[in-house]
Amino acid sequence: MPRNLAELAHAALTAGPTQGAGTAHVADTCVRDGLGFALLFHRRRDGHFAEELYFSTRIDDESWTAADHLSGGVMGIDPTSALELAAILDGRSLAPFGESETPLFTGRPQADDGYELLRFHELLVDGEASHLAIDDTSPEADPARGRIHKSLISQVALVALYPGERFTVRPVVREGTSSYPLGEPYELTGPDS
User: Fold this and answer.
1) Which helix (H) or strand (E) holds 169?
2) pLDDT, tens digit, 9 for 90 and up, residues 47-91
3) Residues sharing a CB contact under 8 Å with residue 2, sequence separation 6 or more, in sequence order
4) CB distance 174 to 131 below 8 Å
């Protein structure tokens, strides 16, 4: 069992989502190339919930480095309360829940000195949705890449975008062997190139 939030983030990227120790939960993970991100919720000593964003780097043997903290803060709501989440969604299938930016070493050829500004979108998703359908609608998008199906761990989804990227995201409900879109698509943008 992970002993702290950094270990919980590392475990989520390594072995998949885990509930965590007591009051800590993995809300979602996002992997982009060799970078992995884990969004965690935890109850603070004062009773309020806080969120923490961690990142890790995949190394040559396909394992992940120890997770490092990127950002965090008090949430103002209980992310485990279906009533509070439904009130925020207010009948929508998807709603923006948070956004942040941070420069990180990506090592990509288009990055200045290897660093790029990444934008993180947190999305609140209807509890009926099983996954998100994500289409890369960036001007430089590779048409062979196709649609990404991002499974949901909780009702909060994390999506990381590189500079210049544009994604169209839509919640999807899976019933048996068929699935159907839920609500309207939502457009996410990365930082300016």
Assistant:
1) strand 166-175
2) 889 999 999 999 988 899 999 999 999 988 888 888 999 999 999
3) 8, 10, 11, 18, 20, 21, 24
4) yes
Q: In this structure, how many other beta carbons lie within 10 angstroms of the beta carbon of residue 112?
A: 8
Is residue 83 left, alpha or beta, with left meaning phi > 0 and alpha meaning psi from -120 to 50? Answer: alpha
Query: Which residue type, as a one-letter code, is found at position 136?
Result: D
Residues in the chain, overall count: 193
The radius of gyration of the chain's CA atoms, rounded to the nearest angstrom, is 17
**Residue 63 has which token pair?**
């394992």
Dihedrals phi, psi of 163, to nearest 5 degrees: -55, 135
For residue 12, what is the DSSP state?
H
Please give the structure tokens belonging to residue 76.
């103002």
